[in-house]
Amino acid sequence: ELLTQLVTKAKNSSVKAMLSVGGWTGARSFSTNVGSSDNRTAFVKTIVDLATKYDLDGVDFECVHHKFCLS
Predict the structure, then answer these.
(1) Each residue of 30-41: pLDDT tens digit?
(2) How buried is residue 48: exposed, middle or buried, by Cβ count under 10 Å (0-12/13-18/19+)?
(3) CA–CA separation, 18 vs 1, rounded Å?
(4) Closest CA to 69 of 23, 17, 2, 12
């Protein structure tokens, strides 16, 4: 799998492998993903599961459009 290969290559090169969530286009989905308690729970569980499964070094959340991030 591509992500597994990427993480392995990063770690073998002493580089951190991180997941980035959001950005300009990703901001539109962000408020839906965190808009309710159930959605937040599912969103966080999914992120933690991904980070654990692929042995990621971290997660970067970026929501650059306040209209969608602060709803």
Answers:
(1) 777 777 889 889
(2) exposed
(3) 16
(4) 23
Tokens of 39: 């959605």
Q: What is the pTM of this model?
A: 0.74
Q: Give the whole-angstrom CA distance, residue 31 versus residue 43.
A: 11
Q: How far apart are CA 33 and CA 37, in angstroms?
A: 10
> Is there a contact between 68 and 31 (Cβ–Cβ < 8 Å)?
yes
Length of the chain: 71
Identify the sign of the CA torsion 58, 64, 70, 71.
Answer: negative
